[in-house]
Amino acid sequence: MKNVKTLALAATAVAAISGNAFAADRTDLHGTDYKWMQFNAMYSIGEKPDNPASGDQHNYLEMEFGGRSGVFDLYGYVDIFNLANENSKDGDKNPGSGTSKLFMKFAPRVSIDALTGKDLSFGPIQEVYFSTLFNWDGLNGEGVNSTFWGVGADVNVPWLGKTGMNLYGFYDMNAKEWNGYQFSANWFKPFYFFDNKSFLSFQGYIDYQFGADEDKTAFVPKTSNGGNIFFGLYWHSDRYALGYGLKGFKDVYLLEDGAGALALESTGWSHYLSATYKF
What we know:
Layout: H1 5-17, E1 34-45, E2 57-69, E3 72-81, E4 102-111, H2 112-116, E5 125-136, E6 145-157, E7 161-172, E8 177-193, E9 199-210, E10 226-236, E11 240-250, E12 268-278
Antiparallel strand pairs: 1-2, 1-12, 2-3, 3-4, 4-5, 5-6, 6-7, 7-8, 8-9, 9-10, 10-11, 11-12
């Protein structure tokens, strides 16, 4: 396994670069607190990885949430698949398929700026974080039980604006070992406003794993790098949203495309349709 000293060096570099930053006004840590929650009715076509023998389509309900409280920044969601528990010739979440009905992502970050009371911003870097990410799918042992630890920042990217970026070390909770890294980025860019104050947004994310150990002898062979990217076009009002997303996969979850006994497809494109109600 590749060691994770790179992350420690990255944290040291951030501190060194920011050492002369001016102190920010942190007298009211909760002065800019906020929170949000929404429910998304989703339909996925072509999601990877999938078994070509069982199809690749399913519906699901997503509870998505986030916010800021003092030093903590949070994003997360919980997905419940195949709501009516129905069988479908194209469904990859059919009853009896052995797949989990649940997936959860939980991504808390701690602001180093807020924690130290100093303004660590420089150039396009707006705020620096200690970042974590947890993925669970509801299965013990053989399911998705992974966690990521590293550093992150809010970065001002031309046109996109504030973009969250994080560099993590990956820890497999099933295998109890560190194995490579992940770079993640996410954005939300309103770009066209209507007279009724609704708007169109370009939103999406990138998750890219690299530096992992290959395992060509596994039941589902593993590669050293892979990931996914999501491009979404959404209409938003104060209470509702409708959207379409195009998602690209390349050996996602480090599963080698078409290899092994199951010959899972882990590379390709998928489509997502969503309808949202905001609380």
